[in-house]
């Protein structure tokens, strides 16, 4: 099993969610986060004064899938999150050694 984690722009969340739902990926966790990558933050002007904002708002998506579905899930997220502009985000996969569904006690792939 793999944990797919994606950091994307907030306005692309609906597109990613719809694309994953169409592929029947169920079980999605979304967290509002902030950070920066290559763009190193940005400057804004408020009431004539310039402010440097180091962290940009982002959305973190976590989804656990089977080994077979990992590459396709990553590609779905990349395609749906893509804008072609700096700050589109990152997607990575991590091995999951064990998963348990708390309600039923199911373990492994059946718990996904």
UniProtKB/TrEMBL annotation:
Q: Please give an example of a GO cellular component term from this record.
A: cytosol
Any single biological process term in GO: regulation of nitrogen utilization
SMART domains reported in the protein's UniProt record: P-II
User: Which keywords does the record carry?
Assistant: Nucleotide-binding, Phosphoprotein, Transcription, Transcription regulation
Q: Which residues carry this modification: O-UMP-tyrosine?
A: 51
Q: Which InterPro entries match?
A: N-reg_PII, N-reg_PII-like_a/b, N-reg_PII/ATP_PRibTrfase_C, N-reg_PII_urydylation_site
**Could you cite one Gene Ontology molecular function of this protein?**
ATP binding
In Pfam terms, one family for this protein is P-II
What PANTHER family does this protein's entry cite?
NITROGEN REGULATORY PROTEIN P-II (PTHR30115), NITROGEN REGULATORY PROTEIN P-II HOMOLOG (PTHR30115:SF11)
Q: What's the subunit arrangement here? A: Homotrimer.
Q: What is this protein called?
A: Nitrogen regulatory protein P-II
């Amino acid at each position: 099993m793999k944990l797919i984690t994606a950091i994307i722009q907030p306005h692309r969340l609906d597109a990613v969610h719809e694309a994953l739902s169409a592929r029947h990926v169920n079980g999605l966790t979304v967290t509002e986060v902030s950070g920066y990558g290559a763009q190193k933050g940005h400057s804004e002007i408020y009431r004539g004064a310039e402010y440097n904002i180091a962290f940009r708002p982002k959305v973190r998506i976590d989804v656990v899938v089977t080994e077979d579905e990992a590459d396709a899930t990553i590609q779905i997220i990349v395609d749906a999150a893509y804008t072609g502009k700096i700050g589109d985000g990152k997607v990575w996969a991590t091995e999951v050694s064990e998963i348990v569904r708390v309600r039923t006690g199911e373990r492994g792939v059946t718990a996904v």
